[in-house]
Amino acid sequence: MRFVVPILSLVALAVMFVWALSSGQLNKLSVAADLSWLTGSVPYLLPVIAAAQGLAVYLLMRHGKPMTIPIISTVVIDPDSAPSEPKTKPSQEQVNTEWVLDALAGGVIVANQQGNITYMNASAEKLTLWQRDKVLGEHVSKVLKLEDLQGNSLGVKAFETNLAHPNHPLQFGQVKLYPRVGEERFVELNTTCILEHCKAIVFIFRDVTADRKIINRLYRQASRDALTDLMNRTSFEQYVEQLAHDTSTLTRSHVLASVDLDNFKIINDTCGHLAGDELLKQVAQIFRRAVRNSDKVARIGGDEFAVFLEGCGLEKGRHIMESILTELRNFRFSWEGKVFSIGASVGLLEFMPASNIQIKQLFSDADKACYTAKALGRNQVFIHAEEKREEMSNQRVHDWGKLLKDAIREDRFILFAQPVVPLHSARNQHFRQYEILLRLPFRQALLNPGSFLPVADRLDLMTSIDRWIIHKSLEMLAGCRGDQQTQPCQEIRLMINLSGQSVQDARLFGYVEEQLNHFGINPGMICFEISESVAISNFVHAKRVMNALHSLGCHLVLDDFGSGFSSLSYLRELPLSYLKIDGNFVHNLVSSPVDAAMVKAVHDVGQVMNLLTIAELVEDGETLVRLREIGVDFAQGYYCGRPIPLVQLRERMKNERDVQAKAA
């Protein structure tokens, strides 16, 4: 159809030519006479051709399609002229092309050499929240408010850079775009010059905010511990390695700390993994509060943590880690009616940045210091200084092992007895009660159990030490009794502590029975103490050994009750005679209403279950009065009586027996 008009025009020209020839206008041509028949018909033929042309044009405009209009006609207008309203409605091809441009390129803005906007597509309108019909002619920096990731303004810089380098398209990567209203977005920005001599500059930007959030979430999942949201081992090691090799700060030292929780296994085994997970979350919060903003904390695995103190000296690092230890000691973890206390062992390492530093060696040295802190008694900070110091530490542990073994073999330990006194006249009995305490002579001093028993536990010596205590205690009772069994003498009941290793020793019951028979001791005069934490963590073994000892006639105490606050179901299954209230609650009984409530709660539990209660660490008269008001049955502490050597107690009992014999 589009070729009809040109063809008819050519036909009309041919007819006119023939008409001129036949009418004598071209008389030089011999063929003119032969075309005389056409002369009379031309006036009628030309209107017909003109009508046919008009009809063809009408049909072409009504049913035909215009030729494709290039997108540049809509995007790039004369850069030097002011924008004007379009005079005709955009064609379907224009609409389709712009839709494709929106889908493929994102936001598109065209500016002239003066920086004035000459075109904006629909995607750019959505991203900037500016209406395109109102920004035409405005400077591009007003609409495109761009910043790099460091916060530097980028809009004008991108425009000027394109003018300076018109032959090089520019890629700016991810930048920040601030829309007219609302929060910032992240876009990928590309710019390029178009037309000759860079008469127009095109800004193309794609929204990557959602992509960036996904990438950040994936990175966080890869670099953070899923449970505690602390750094994980991999990201922590990479961070430490980066700063350890940063020699630009040679004058700054750093401190690396390795932390291992104590008593975590007890909680995890007793209450399950859900409780263990919740404990780790709460411990992570303690770390976050205690460190500085510049420090990094990571969960290395299980109950192991690491802390990196950036730009920190050794003494400052020690102070920070000791404050964390204090927080952990005072922390009480509660789970389904049970309350637990925890602690930690900390190894510290100070180092200076160096290009050849070995990261694995740093972590290994920090771990060794942590193991040393655990071996030397736990709940303390040990500093790794140099190789000789480490060798001395290892030698110290080795010497402790030899010292303890020699003390067992050569009877170097000394037993003390601390009285457990009744708080009510109704509890006065025909025997006295004492708890057996262990001491170790060392360099003209007597060491408390906390100084050496953790090492003995690590070296698996606790069973041997417990048997030594049992043997010596029964031997003392036999000696106190004298040769004349009929002599009147107030008897002594001794309370002997059993370790976790002894509770799991299948041969303990046989040994106790053998010793009782050997010395001829009434089993009712022996009371074995098992701490609540040991009973919970080894419940099956504890129940077995406690039932066996109870069958002999021995009494049983659940020590430190309240530190773990076992459920009543545990207590119902154990053949107990006493509950000993955790001394941490008794110590602050007068000043702390919470601790007073805990003491009363433990005593109430004892009353319900027909168990006698003992409060330890009683150090003043006011606490003793308060315990009587609560109704606690017995008290133990320096105010009630200081520990005396068991040998001295035996001599005292002998003297009393002799006095009674003479009086009789």
UniProtKB/TrEMBL annotation:
Domain GGDEF: 252-386
Gene3D superfamilies named in the record: 3.30.70.270, EAL domain (3.20.20.450), PAS domain (3.30.450.20)
InterPro entries recorded: Biofilm_reg_signaling, EAL_dom, EAL_sf, GGDEF_dom, Nucleotide_cyclase, PAS, PAS-like_dom_sf, PAS_fold
Matching CDD domains: EAL, GGDEF, PAS
Sequence intervals crossing the membrane: 44-61
Keywords for the protein's UniProt record, in alphabetical order: Membrane, Transmembrane, Transmembrane helix
Keyword Membrane attributed: yes
Domain of life, source organism: Bacteria
Annotated PANTHER family: DIGUANYLATE CYCLASE DGCE-RELATED, DIGUANYLATE CYCLASE DGCP
The name this protein goes by in its record: EAL domain-containing protein
Source organism of this protein record: Thiothrix litoralis
